[in-house]
UniProtKB/TrEMBL annotation:
GO terms for molecular function: hydrolase activity. InterPro entries: AB_hydrolase_fold, Dienelactn_hydro, GDXG_lipolytic_enzyme. It holds the Pfam family DLH. The keyword Hydrolase applies. Residues 1-31 form the signal peptide. Residues 115-285 form the Dienelactone hydrolase domain. This is Alpha/beta hydrolase. SUPFAM superfamilies: alpha/beta-Hydrolases (SSF53474). Keywords: Hydrolase, Signal. It comes from Pseudoduganella lutea. Gene3D superfamilies: alpha/beta hydrolase.
Amino acid sequence: MNRTQWWTRGAVRPALGAMAMAWTMASPAMAQNDKMVPIATPQQKEAIVLGTGALPGATAAESWHTQYGSTFARNVTVATLTPFLPAPGKATGAAVIVAPGGGFRTLSMNNEGWDVAKALAGKGVAAFVLKYRLNQTPADMAGFERSMAEMFSATAKRPPAPQDPGTTYAPQIADARAAFALVRSRAAAWHVDADRIGMLGFSAGAMLTMATALHGEDAKPAFIGNIYGPLSAVTVPADAPPLFVALAADDPFFANAGYGLIDSWRSAKRPVEFHLFEQGGHGFGMYPKSTTSTGWFDGYVRWLGMHGYLQPKRQQVQ
């Protein structure tokens, strides 16, 4: 796999001038609600610690903050999985592991995690929010804000493209593999079909979703969703899962580097659905917006239904 396939300069260079603004494009209320406010680590009674251990070399403790009316986690050193199960009798047997985004420095737990999982459970699909391990950031909020501003500035040195995503994202892929293993081990108790577990990721979480599908070995998602992640070309295996993609045409990060990922899936004759919204920016997730990008979730649910995941296997027409 070459350098252009994951973190391409073409994907980020055209957007450098807009990067500082991109962090404020997800919610219509952000101009009044974009301050990072530290909060106490919320009680996560349902979160299950995955067996991947603490992040090696981590020194800062996990911490949480609110921004844009949403909740974010950072300095995650121990991965967890939080289940959101459908009401009794409503479960279809399908399940989705949800990977929030945040540049591998923070996790958008509400907008790209819990809110997505709740909505899926409402459709009868079991959902599991993966709080995966992150790159360390300064422990103090002021230092964290500076580090994020520097990452999005036009003068920041861009990170090199990973030569091997399977190695670059090794801790996160390990977390995803552990998540799949846990769900499969408890499939009966959670009313999940072990062969119908997919993965849905946002931004960095979309990168992790793609890396898991291509390098996750025993994880093998049954279907995958890439929501405003990179669309660089990849080598697609013959058994690649069905892929759902949603991106806004004004996304400052990933809308200007072509649609190689879509072409790769089509060339491999694997199922792919691509929604390119005129407006929406980056990070729209479950935020209510006036743009049509808000409809991505309805499209995703219809796609799940088209592939038979909104009804139990025994009810599907053979």
